[in-house]
């Protein structure tokens, strides 16, 4: 597989803006995310502070983004990213089914709407999963808990119900979903416990339920879960004015870099991140050429 | 005169974005700049990387900005700002005819298209002026040089021709302007010399013309000319990720903070700068209340 110049992770306003600029400048890139674009934007009733677009609803704005992506022929790769690995010269991006390589990465994954609960990070990969498609089959015939923060991901809950023996379901929104093996506990999830791997989930009422695994179906997971070693500050990626993170070749844009959580801030940062990634590409390609010359010399 | 919460200097995309957010959040503010908005935007033939607005010309985009300012009832104060002074608790903004006070300032003045020539900064206020309206009358019947970087300001050249005895004119664009007392030197301006004040302008061909004053009619003047003490780096205002400058209560947004010179970057930074200014206002109003309480105690 060819190595892309830029991997853009996220199809909210920041990721879209980065992709538009990469496209216009003729870079090879992969835009990962949902083709439904940002659910957070989509839910906004009225947006009146996005310059040049007067009074739109969020779904109208997403419609305008869609139209622009189509006109510029920018495809969306709808795979859930499970991890990004810094390989020095490039980044390895692990998705559900396959892996990708890119020289630079722009993280535009939004901000975690719901704070992690105790045990969530500690047991990641040892009973805790963020991806039903990737890890669901491991829990066939077993007992799991599922915490879901938005309606758009409820089809994944349904998918897990088809595999597991029992699903303790904790929706963080009004949900009417019913399945034979779906159980709604009396209180919210407070924490996860176990020794080597997940053994039980604690409820806010003090109760404890034995489970083999816990799925968190979240729109956005904190970026340091995706890419270890990324410098964070209070849940946000630390960036400079050029949107550079502490990792060379890795840039970030949008809500994941901090407040204000605003569409225009996100598109601006996506633009800057794309330009910084392109400057980085020029820099490393120059270095590469120099090292080739040195080899010849 | 009432002190405004925020003075926004510049009516390009960054200043407009800041003003929209200040308006929506109910802050008192003054938006200084040209009601023609950004000439740089206006001249763009095609803009295809502003998210949600497909393929517009610059003048169409300025039209959309105009419409939004009108709908939100945001007036533009069309006065040329000659200086901004940090008074500690507030900023004093000197305009052509009057002065204004504001608790915080957002500088969104764009980037100087043409680098300053030797002597330009040194003789500012001693024969060098950036404002025909403010200083033109000082040169009635005298000899001046005028350097103008854009067609939109040529009416000011005309105004100066009506006052001065002789005008040596250096347009930095194709200009067809003719006046009886307008002289076009054979070469471009290379520098300004004098002892206490301006005495002559040097040309690139080595020639020297005696003048009493030199006017620079520029769309954007470097921000540190406007506000002394502002930390700059290679012609750009140094800002952090919150758009804060080195001066408390002073924020910056858009091209003046550095590359990329892009509309979406400018609107994003204008949004962030407005939110940072509002956070600053909340902080100082809290401090003010605390100091009142201490006085009472």
Folded structure, characterized:
The structure is a homodimer of 297-residue chains. Chain A folds into two domains: 4-113 and 220-296, FAD/NAD(P)-binding domain (3-Layer(bba) Sandwich); 128-217, FAD/NAD(P)-binding domain (3-Layer(bba) Sandwich). Helix content of chain A is 27%, strand content 25%. Chain A contains seven helices and 16 strands. In chain A, strands 1, 2, 3, 4, 5 and 16 form a six-stranded mixed β-sheet that branches. A five-stranded parallel β-sheet of chain A has the order 6-13-7-8-9, covered by helices on one side. Chain A binds chain B through residues 13, 16-17, 20-21, 24, 48-55, 61, 64-65, 67-68, 71-72, 239-241, 257-260, 262, 264-272, 275, and chain B through 13, 16-17, 20-21, 24, 48-55, 61, 64-65, 67-68, 71-72, 239-241, 257-260, 262, 264-272, 275.
Would you kindly provide a brief summary of this structure?
2 copies of one chain form a homodimer. The first copy, chain A, is α/β, with parallel strands linked by helices and 297 residues long.
Defining traits:
homodimer, 297 residues, alpha/beta, FAD/NAD(P)-binding domain, 2 domains, six-stranded mixed beta sheet, five-stranded parallel beta sheet, 25% strand, disordered C terminus
């Amino acid at each position: 597989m060819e190595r892309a110049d830029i991997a853009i992770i996220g199809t909210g306003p920041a990721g879209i803006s980065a992709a538009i600029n990469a496209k216009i400048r003729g870079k090879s890139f992969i835009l990962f995310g949902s083709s439904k674009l940002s659910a957070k934007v989509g839910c906004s009733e009225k947006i009146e502070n996005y310059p040049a677009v007067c009074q739109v609803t969020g779904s109208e704005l997403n419609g305008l983004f869609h139209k622009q992506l189509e006109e510029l022929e920018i495809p969306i790769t709808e795979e859930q990213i499970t991890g990004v690995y810094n390989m020095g010269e490039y980044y390895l991006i692990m998705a559900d089914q396959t892996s990708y390589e890119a020289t630079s990465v722009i993280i535009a994954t939004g901000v975690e709407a719901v704070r992690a609960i105790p045990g969530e990070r500690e047991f990641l990969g040892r009973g805790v999963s963020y991806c039903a498609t990737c890890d669901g089959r491991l829990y066939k015939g077993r007992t799991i808990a599922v915490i879901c923060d938005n309606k758009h991901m409820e089809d994944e809950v349904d998918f897990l119900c088809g595999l597991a023996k029992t699903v303790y379901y904790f929706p963080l929104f009004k949900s009417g979903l019913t399945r034979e093996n779906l159980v709604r506990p009396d209180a919210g999830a407070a924490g996860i416990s176990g020794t080597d791997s997940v053994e039980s989930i604690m409820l806010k009422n003090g109760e404890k339920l034995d489970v083999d695994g816990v799925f968190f179906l979240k729109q956005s997971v904190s970026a340091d879960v995706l890419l270890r070693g990324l410098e964070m500050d209070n849940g946000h990626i630390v960036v400079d004015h050029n949107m550079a993170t502490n990792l060379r070749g890795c840039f970030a844009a949008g809500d994941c870099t901090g407040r204000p959580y605003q569409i225009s801030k996100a598109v601006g940062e996506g633009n800057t991140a794309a330009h910084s990634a392109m400057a980085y590409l020029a820099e490393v390609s120059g270095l590469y050429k120099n090292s080739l010359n040195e080899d010849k010399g």
